[in-house]
Structure formats: C-alpha cells, structure tokens
Amino acid sequence: MTERPVERTSTRTGLDRKPAQQAAASKPSAVPPPASSGGTPPRAPLTERISAKLSNAADEHRANANPDSKVAVKKAAQGSRPPRRARLRLSRIDPWSVMKTAFLLSVAFGVVTIVSVLMVWSVLGAAGVWDSINKTVQDIVGGQDASSFDVQNYVGTSRVLGFTMLVAVIDVVLLTAIATLGAFLYNMAAALLGGIEVTLAEDS
Q: In Å, what is the CA distance from 15 to each residue of 23, 116, 153, 202?
C-alpha cells in the first residue's frame, strides 16, 4: 500500500526536471568560443585598415612631392651614428706591377710630348714665325751670307721631332727603372719600419 505513492512522486519529479533542463539548454553559454588553432589575433575592422592604407599612401605622396625630406631623413639617420674609420697599412708594393704601370705611363707621356711639339711647331710655321725670323736676320746681318740663312735648317720640324723622340725614349727607360727601383726600396723600408699607415673614414 505504501509503494504506489512513492512511484507517483518520482514520476512527478522527473516531469518537473525536464522543463528545467530545457530552460538551461536554451540559455546562451557564457564560455567564449575557443581560439583558432593557429593562434592568430583577430583582424582589425575594415574601416581601420582602410584608414591606415590611406594614411600610408598620403605619406608616400608627400615624400615623393618633396624629395628634400628624404635627404633630410637620411642625413638625420646617418648623423645619429659616428662615421666609421679604418686604419690600413701599405706593407708591400709589387715591383712587377709598378714596372708595368710606370712603363705604360711613361710611354703615354712620351706620345703626348711628341704630339704637343708637333702641334706647336706646325702653328709656328703656319703663323709665319720662321719667315719673320729669317727676314729679321737678313736685315740685321745683310750680305749674301744672310740671304742664304734659314732658321728651319737648325730648328726645323724634322730636327725637333727627332730630338723629341729621342728624349721620349730616354724618359721611358729612366722612368720605368726609377719606379721599379723605388718599389724595391719601399718594400725594404716597410719591412723595417712597417710601411705607410692610412686612415679611411666615411664621408659625413
């Protein structure tokens, strides 16, 4: 007789729990959604991204319109650090390279000398300098000896060019030998004293 009322109460309590469970399920959960597997932060809103791009484009346009601002910014960035310095020492000179360089430079100097002398003598001949000298000598000396005088027999173009070529050849030999000997002497002095020290620095 006592068991039946107990069963009714149990069924009633079960019926009462169902609406409570449905109400709890209908409520939104307060737990935030899980983050993405990559761990990337959420992106900024579209309006902020558009405004940032517009501001960057405006800055680039101003910089392109005023190139002096770029130079000023670069100078300011360079002025923040001191210029770098490097100390180098010339400890040895290759005599073979010195001889080749000196030979080429002396040959070039000889060619320039010959060409310059030829141009000067050609200009003097075209200007009538030799004729005027011959006439002046004839007027001063007079006689038959003066009439046969010609200054070009002594300082003519062929004579002067021959002498200039001889001097140029001698210069080539002497300059090449002196430069090579100087390289050997410098190497000996550098072995004893350490050579010439050079300090290089950036242009501020």
A: 14, 125, 145, 90
pLDDT for the residue 54: 76
- Is the per-residue pLDDT at 49 higher than 70? yes
Question: How many Å apart are CA 9 and CA 19, to the nearest integer?
Answer: 16
The residue to which tokens 């030799």 are assigned: 130
With cut-offs at 50, 70 and 90, classify the pLDDT of residue 9: very low
Q: Angle of helix 95-126 relative to helix 129-141, nearest 10 degrees?
A: 60
Q: pTM, whole model, 2 decimals?
A: 0.53
- The contacts of residue 134 (CB under 8 Å, 6+ apart) are 149, 150, 151
CA 20 to chain centre: 82
200 or 44, higher pLDDT: 200
Which of 167, 168, 188, 189 lies closest to 106, judged by CA?
A: 168
Alpha-carbon distance of 187 to 94, in angstroms, equals 9
Tokens 């430079």 correspond to 105
